[in-house]
């Protein structure tokens, strides 16, 4: 193992000793209690299977016949989730082939940041993760299952399903994705039209035409944002079948992988010879593997929130300094839009996850000695699935990159360090995604212009007031203020100014999209303005320096002067679109560096 990976893992194990022991003790107790339906009374049992077919009723009465719970984020509005409509039928048929049954245990909400981006509904987005976790727990709380399949893909859905699954860690659980849509209009063309529209040089019809050519079919969006970072992490953590992440929906191979997940979760159940509960798969080493994969591929900054909360659900104490230390030794070996020009389909074709895992394991950056749903060892994920005479099989994945502009080995990376870094200074701690930022833009020093709403930034740009060097300070965007919405709508505006040669950066206690890229942005700043963080004391003209090279976020204001200033007044609370129902979440959310979580 690389000494830094080993050191970080050991300190996570040490600081997690008590919460992890408590978690495992609870899972052991649940497992010792036996399969859920064996404890049901006759009336409970009848209610649980009243709607099942006669064949399934006969099968489930056999205590040796496992019953699998299906938890799904299906809806037919959103492209990533629409393919999941077909999955339950595939899963049930496959379960019957191996003497088991499967039931659709429950659905979870799945909102799309792409639809709500820049809209009021985005203020519910982050908190939907915790609602999903609770809804997954409600689905499985019937306690009639010997295992579960989690069907989900996108931004908050997979982290929420993971947190819910962790509470049932005594069961075998496999995550079963839908896959990405086929490639549409190029990402470069999409970005070009967005920039023209921001400058008033393209009409709304032209912009809509471009967007609909980009987002055009079933499956996840093809850029490397949070959704596709989710799928990468589930493979790095051993919760997918090998190579499941980036196979297109509604294809024979995708259907075969879905059926195989159903059969495998039966095989690794408590009654099988290869019992593999979720709690044995997810531990300190697998969490580190998820972080390393995120850093090596330039994945979404949203996971500096999600992974912290996900780890905590399994009794693991993951912190931002772990990301930072691992990032200093983990090379960036993938460039996928917005970090490069090509999408996840090109990444998959170039070698994809099999290549990435081979590189990280061989370099000692990722732990191979882990338990996965496929068996012992992350090296099982060097393989890729294919159909041989119509049957699912696996073969060794690419040992060399098939497209060096997309994937590179660890000894010839795009960057010696990973795609995410932590910034520190008198304003607090923040996260920056550096994988898509050109080196010349990684350090910016300029006067601050302070805002309390992203609409104010866009309006100032449209009035011609921002054509200069500046750092946009956007505050009152943290979890306690308004739910920490993504601020991706600012990317076209700030990109235009940067392209004009202006030195621009963003400092905010909010989030940026997992697809955000070329403009340097210090995000997730904590403490946030709503909790009295120093960002609430900044004034227009204060000189701010963002230095990603040195990991610093500093200001040219004396600390005593800064702290003597009055706090800026927060903007009025906004209503509508369900925001009134989430006051409890805003009032209880933990700080960003603790996962911005309402559950623990």
In short:
This protein is of the alpha/beta class and 600 residues long. Helices cover 37% and strands 14% of the residues.
Features:
alpha/beta; 37% helix; 4-stranded parallel beta sheet; 600 residues; 3 domains
Kindly describe this structure.
The structure is a single chain. The chain is an alpha/beta fold and 600 residues long. The chain folds into 3 domains: 3-182 and 217-396, no CATH class; 183-216, no CATH class; 420-594, Glucose Oxidase, domain 1 (3-Layer(bba) Sandwich). Helices cover 37% and strands 14% of the residues. The chain contains 23 helices and 16 strands. The strands form 4 sheets. Strands 9-10-14-13-12-11-15-16 form an 8-stranded mixed beta sheet. The protein has a 4-stranded parallel beta sheet with strand order 2-1-3-4, with helices on both faces. A hairpin with a 4-residue loop joins β15 (543-547) and β16. The radius of gyration is 24 Å and the shape is globular. The model has no long low-confidence stretch (mean pLDDT 95).
């Amino acid at each position: 193992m690389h000494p830094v990976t080993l050191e970080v893992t050991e300190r996570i194990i040490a600081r997690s000793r008590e919460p992890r022991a408590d978690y495992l003790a609870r899972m052991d107790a649940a497992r010792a209690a036996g399969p859920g339906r064996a404890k049901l009374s006759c009336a409970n049992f009848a209610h649980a299977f009243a709607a099942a077919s006669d064949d399934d009723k006969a099968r489930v009465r056999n205590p040796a016949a496992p019953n699998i719970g299906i938890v799904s984020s299906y809806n037919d509005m959103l492209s990533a989730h629409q393919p999941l409509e077909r999955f339950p039928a595939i899963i049930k048929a496959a379960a019957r082939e191996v003497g088991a049954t499967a039931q659709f245990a429950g659905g979870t909400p799945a909102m799309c940041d792409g639809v709500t981006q820049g809209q009021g509904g985005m203020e519910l987005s982050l908190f939907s993760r915790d609602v999903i976790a609770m809804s997954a727990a409600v689905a499985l709380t019937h306690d009639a299952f010997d295992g579960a399949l989690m069907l989900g893909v996108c931004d908050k859905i997979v982290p929420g399903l993971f947190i819910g699954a962790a509470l049932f860690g005594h069961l075998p659980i496999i995550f079963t994705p839908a896959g990405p849509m086929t490639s549409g209009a190029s990402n470069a063309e999409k970005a070009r039209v967005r920039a023209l529209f921001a400058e008033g040089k393209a009409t709304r019809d032209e912009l809509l035409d471009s967007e609909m050519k980009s987002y055009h079919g079933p499956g996840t969006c093809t850029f490397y944002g949070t959704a596709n970072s989710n799928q990468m992490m589930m493979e790095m953590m051993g919760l997918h079948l090998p190579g499941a992440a980036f196979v297109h929906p509604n294809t024979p191979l995708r259907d075969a992988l879905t059926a195989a997940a159903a059969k495998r979760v039966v095989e690794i159940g408590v009654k099988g010879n290869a019992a593999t509960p979720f709690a044995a798969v997810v531990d300190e080493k697998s969490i580190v593997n998820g972080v390393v994969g995120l850093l090596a591929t330039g994945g979404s900054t949203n996971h500096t929130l999600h992974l912290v909360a996900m780890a905590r659900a399994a009794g693991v104490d993951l912190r931002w300094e772990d990301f930072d230390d691992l990032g200093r030794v983990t090379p960036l070996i993938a460039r996928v839009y917005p970090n490069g020009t090509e999408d996840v389909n090109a990444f998959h074709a170039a070698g994809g996850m099999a290549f990435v895992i081979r590189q990280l394991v061989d370099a000692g950056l990722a732990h191979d000695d882990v338990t996965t749903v496929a068996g012992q060892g992350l090296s099982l994920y060097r393989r890729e699935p294919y159909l041989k005479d119509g049957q699912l099989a696996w073969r060794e994945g690419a040992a060399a990159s098939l497209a060096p502009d997309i994937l590179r080995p660890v000894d010839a990376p795009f960057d010696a360090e990973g795609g995410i870094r932590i910034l520190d200074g008198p304003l607090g701690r923040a996260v920056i995604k550096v994988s898509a930022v050109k080196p010349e833009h990684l350090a910016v020093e300029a006067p601050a212009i302070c805002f309390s709403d992203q609409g104010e930034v866009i309006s100032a740009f449209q009035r011609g007031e921002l054509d200069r060097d500046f750092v946009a300070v956007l505050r009152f965007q943290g979890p306690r203020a308004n739910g920490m919405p993504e601020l991706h709508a600012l990317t076209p505006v700030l990109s235009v100014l940067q392209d004009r040669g202006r030195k621009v950066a963003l400092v905010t206690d909010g989030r940026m999209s997992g697809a955000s890229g070329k403009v340097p942005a210090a995000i997730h700043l904590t403490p946030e303005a709503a909790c009295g963080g120093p960002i609430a004391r900044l004034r227009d003209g204060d000189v701010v320096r963002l230095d990603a090279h040195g990991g610093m976020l500093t200001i040219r204001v004396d600390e005593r002067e800064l702290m003597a200033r009055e706090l800026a007044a927060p903007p009025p609370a906004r209503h509508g679109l369900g925001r009134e129902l989430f006051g409890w979440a805003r009032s209880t959310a933990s700080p960003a560096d603790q996962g911005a979580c309402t559950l623990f």
